[in-house]
Amino acid sequence: MTEIIVRPLAQSDHADWQRLWTAYLIFYETKLPEDVYTVTWKRLFTAGEFEPKGFIATLGGKAVGLTHYLYHRSCWSEKNNCYLQDLFADPDVRGKGVGAALIEAVKQEAGKIGVKNVYWMTHETNTTARKLYDHVARRTGFIEYDLM
User: Fold this and answer.
1) Distances (CA, A) of 92 to 11, 63, 96
2) CA–CA distance, 117 with 76 (Å, rounded to integer)
3) Fewer beta carbons within 10 angstroms: which end of the chain, N or C?
4) Going along the chain, which residue ranges are E strands?
5) What is the tens place of the pLDDT at every residue in 46-101?
6) How much is the pTM?
7) Could you tell me the pLDDT band of residue 1, with boundaries at 50, 70 and 90?
8) How far apart are CA 21 and CA 15, in angstroms?
């Protein structure tokens, strides 16, 4: 089997990133204006403790997955928390370890700076992803509320 390679996003990944992120948004029945794509791409390469970061996964030389994550302060710890904001694997590679490899990359990167809490959300109907999440993490039982 071909090895999954996970690495930080590079400027040269723009077309693959846009394709994968668009597919992710479509999966969640969401559409964002081009301005949000532009500012997000810029932020992914802006230095700063709280700017979003990203990884891309390749399989056989083809970009097949991505994740965005960011650090934020917490009143519960001296160290930041890490929110894994977006995670996506092309449908044709699901079940081959791409999602797990991306999660592990975020965990390892966060661990380098002492972060002890990496967390994320998914929709309750996302049963395919939840099988992976139930395997690699613990479900906290918290319910999300959103004001806007």
Assistant:
1) 25, 12, 9
2) 11
3) C
4) 4-8, 53-59, 62-72, 81-89, 118-119
5) 999 999 999 999 999 999 999 999 999 999 999 999 999 999 999 999 989 999 99
6) 0.93
7) low
8) 10
Backbone φ, ψ for residue 56 (5° rounding): -125, 145
Q: How far apart, in whole angstroms, are the C-alpha atoms of residue 17 and residue 66?
A: 7
> What is the token pair recorded at 9?
């996003």
Written as six digits, the tokens of 84 are: 């894994």
For residues 9 and 26, give the distance between their C-alpha atoms in angstroms, rounded to a whole number. 21
Domains annotated for the chain, with CATH where assigned, are 4-136 (3.40.630.30)
Residues 60 and 93 sit within 8 Å (Cβ to Cβ): no
> What Cα–Cα distance (Å) separates residue 144 from each residue in 120, 125, 126?
11, 14, 15
Task: Tokens for 86, please give them.
Answer: 């977006």
Residue ranges with strand state E in 12-123? 53-59, 62-72, 81-89, 118-119
What's the residue count for the chain? 148
Q: What is the CA radius of gyration of the chain?
A: 15
